[in-house]
């Protein structure tokens, strides 16, 4: 899945810069589409106006976002046939158990805490992209639409 | 009957008296003729007298019997009357139409009436209509039952309405038809008032508990929201600090001199430290907030697992670490793991300068508690984590469990002084005790107990 774009749903500009840098540092060549709020995400993923929807390799989603929380967005993504099986990785600062539990209950594929130490974050991004972009085999699109 | 027996006695007395008089007259006169005349008369009179006397004696016997029976009956009635008159219960009997047949003295005193005045009256002659109606309804209810009926009744008295617990039952004639109802009422006003008092106090208490609970829930929610915000919002800027100082070091290293790079490292390290501090604070808050789930906990397994993790993370250290077999207690596994993790990490850290570091986890008998004690297999009792590290000065022991208090300079041993506060918090929530013994340069021992009894959360 090195050709499909990575969707980063994040509103903190510092976090956006640091995350983009981490992907670049780890040699991830995928296009990274950054969306800063949930409304934008829904428009791109589930367009109502007939434009072709974005089909990302993975969605990296923060929980605290303007307009819709990451958990609300997750619920919307999972309840639509077109996006039911797209891998969603919660990438958040929260270590609260309730966020972890709610994420999995709503169908998140993974829950990753952003560490404070940047070198640690670099390792996290490396592992994460290696797994989700290379190792993980996605469901064939004939059976579960991309 | 009484009059008839009197007449018999009078007649016998008369006959005997006449006979004696005739005899006496003959004797006094001394006249044979008179005696001759007199003797047949005396004999006749005497015979008649004897006859009457014998008959009278038979009557007298029956009479005595009747008197005895009557006395007995009267004594019986008297005894029963004494019983019903000398009880604190109010006793009364009314016929099927509600007219009084009988009341006891308690009734007379209570309502200020005399029993002879009551005969023929009904409750409607004595009480206000609603009260009388209620009594009558209860009478009718009791009359419809074969067995005694228990009910609560209210009766007006000079000092207010009294509550009675009343037993009512029908009185039946020989054919089994009820002709009256008997009631026995016991004043339970005091009990009622006490009950009312208890109920009121309970209600007040419940109300207060509810209020406090609401307050407590609000403050817990606040704390929760605060912790949540700390968890998320305070860490984000730290990531920025750490991330960009790292980026600067990587991308602009050539344009900075040694001092400039050192400053950047300090910024990154400080942000990292604060991140750790926030994690510890959250753990402390979680140790207080997390719901306590009491289950059997295998402390030996927990300690061994943590020891393994410590060795893996620090493979160059040589530490003789022993964990006693069979350490177990009832408690919250996740929270007790925090206790062992903090105590073992401390022991690990403070023995780092020992050539041969030693850490022992075990249990000893609890001497201070009678029931504590228990078994040599280490189940319950006092658990300990002991090391031969740098130890501490017991003069500062009271500061050990206070958040952010440190007994060693940060330059020697890292840490922010929250670990033992977490430990103390968890132990307190298990109704346990924690204390420490130490000697500078010779090691430290931390002891804790866990209350085995399931009960309310100690927080």
TrEMBL record, chain A:
UniProt key word Signal: no
A biological process term (GO) from this entry: phosphorelay signal transduction system
Boundaries of every Response regulatory domain copy: 5-129
Record-linked InterPro entries: CheY-like_superfamily, Sig_transdc_resp-reg_receiver, TCS_response_regulator
4-aspartylphosphate PTM positions: 62
Pfam families: Response_reg
Keyword Transmembrane helix: no
SMART domains the record matches: REC
Gene3D superfamilies: 3.40.50.2300
UniProt keywords, alphabetically: Phosphoprotein
Protein name, UniProt field: Response regulator
TrEMBL record, chain B:
Organism: Actinomadura rudentiformis
Entry GO terms, CC: plasma membrane
Enzyme class: transferase
Any single biological process term in GO: osmosensory signaling via phosphorelay pathway
EC assignment: 2.7.13.3
Transmembrane segments: 34-53
Protein localization: Cell membrane
Keyword Phosphoprotein carried by entry: yes
PAS domain boundaries: 76-154
Span of domain PAC: 149-200
Entry GO MF terms: phosphorelay response regulator activity; phosphorelay sensor kinase activity; protein kinase activator activity
Catalytic activity reported: ATP + protein L-histidine = ADP + protein N-phospho-L-histidine
InterPro entries: BphY/WalK/GraS-like (IPR050351), HATPase_C_sf (IPR036890), HATPase_dom (IPR003594), His_kinase_dom (IPR005467), HisK_dim/P_dom (IPR003661), HisK_dim/P_sf (IPR036097), PAS (IPR000014), PAS-assoc_C (IPR000700)
Keyword Coiled coil: yes
Entry-linked Gene3D superfamilies: 1.10.287.130, Histidine kinase-like ATPase, C-terminal domain, PAS domain
SMART domains with a match to the protein in the record: HATPase_c, HisKA, PAS
Coiled-coil features, chain-numbered ranges: 184-222
NCBIfam families: sensory_box
Domain Histidine kinase: 229-454
Keywords attached to this entry: Coiled coil, Kinase, Membrane, Phosphoprotein, Transferase, Transmembrane, Transmembrane helix, Two-component regulatory system
Name of the protein: Sensor-like histidine kinase SenX3
């Amino acid at each position: 899945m090195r050709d499909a774009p990575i969707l980063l749903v994040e509103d903190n500009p510092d976090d956006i810069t640091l995350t983009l840098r981490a992907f670049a540092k780890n040699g991830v060549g995928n296009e990274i589409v950054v969306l800063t709020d949930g409304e934008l995400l829904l428009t791109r993923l589930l367009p109502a106006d007939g434009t072709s929807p974005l089909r990302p390799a993975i969605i990296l989603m923060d929980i605290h976002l303007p307009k819709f929380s990451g958990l609300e967005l997750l619920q919307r993504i999972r309840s639509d046939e077109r996006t039911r099986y797209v891998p969603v990785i919660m990438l958040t600062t929260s270590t609260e158990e309730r966020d972890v539990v709610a994420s999995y209950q709503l169908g998140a594929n993974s829950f990753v805490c952003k560490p404070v130490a940047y070198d640690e974050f670099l390792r996290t991004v490396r592992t994460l992209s290696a797994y989700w972009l290379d190792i993980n085999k996605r469901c064939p699109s004939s059976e579960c639409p991309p | 009957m009484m009059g008839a027996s009197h007449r018999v006695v009078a007649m016998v007395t008369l006959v005997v008296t006449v006979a004696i008089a005739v005899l006496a007259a003959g004797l006094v006169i001394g006249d044979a003729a008179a005696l001759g005349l007199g003797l047949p008369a005396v004999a006749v009179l005497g015979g008649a007298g004897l006859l009457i006397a014998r008959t009278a004696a038979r009557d007298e016997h029956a009479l005595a019997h009747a008197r005895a029976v009557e006395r007995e009956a009267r004594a019986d009635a008297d005894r029963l009357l004494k019983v019903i008159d000398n009880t604190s219960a109010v006793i009364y009997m009314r016929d099927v139409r509600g007219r009084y047949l009988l009341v006891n003295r308690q009734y007379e005193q209570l309502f200020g009436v005399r029993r002879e005045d009551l005969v023929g009256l009904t409750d409607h002659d004595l009480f206000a209509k609603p009260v009388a109606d209620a009594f009558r309804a209860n009478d009718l209810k009791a009359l419809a039952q074969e067995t005694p009926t228990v009910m609560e009744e209210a009766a007006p008295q000079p000092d207010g309405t009294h509550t009675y617990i009343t037993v009512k039952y029908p009185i039946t004639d020989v054919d089994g038809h009820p002709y009256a109802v008997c009631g026995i009422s016991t004043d339970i006003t005091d009990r009622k008032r006490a009950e009312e008092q208890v109920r009121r106090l309970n209600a007040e208490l419940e109300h207060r508990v509810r209020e406090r609970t609401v307050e407590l829930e609000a403050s817990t929610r606040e704390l929760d929201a605060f912790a949540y915000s700390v968890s998320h919002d305070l860490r984000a800027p730290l990531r920025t600090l750490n991330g960009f100082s790292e980026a600067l070091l990587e991308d602009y290293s050539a344009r900075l001199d040694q001092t400039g790079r050192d400053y950047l490292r300090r910024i990154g390290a400080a942000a990292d430290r604060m991140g750790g501090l926030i994690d510890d604070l959250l753990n402390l808050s979680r140790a207080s907030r997390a719901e306590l789930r009491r289950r059997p906990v295998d402390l030996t397994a927990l300690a061994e697992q943590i020891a393994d993790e410590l060795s893996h993370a620090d493979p160059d250290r040589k530490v003789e670490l022993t964990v006693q077999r069979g350490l177990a207690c009832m408690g919250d596994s996740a929270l007790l793991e925090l206790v062992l993790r903090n105590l073992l990490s401390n022991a690990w850290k403070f023995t780092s300068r020992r050539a041969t570091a030693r850490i022992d986890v075990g249990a000893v008998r609890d001497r201070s508690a009678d029931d504590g004690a228990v078994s040599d297999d280490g189940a319950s009792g006092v658990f300990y984590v002991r090391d031969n590290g740098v130890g501490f000065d017991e003069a500062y022991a009271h500061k050990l469990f206070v958040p952010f208090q440190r007994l060693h300079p940060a330059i020697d041993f890292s840490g922010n002084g929250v670990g033992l506060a977490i430990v103390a918090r968890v132990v307190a929530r298990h109704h346990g005790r924690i204390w420490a013994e130490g000697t500078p340069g010779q090691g430290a021992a931390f002891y804790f107990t866990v209350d085995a009894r399931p009960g309310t959360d100690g927080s």
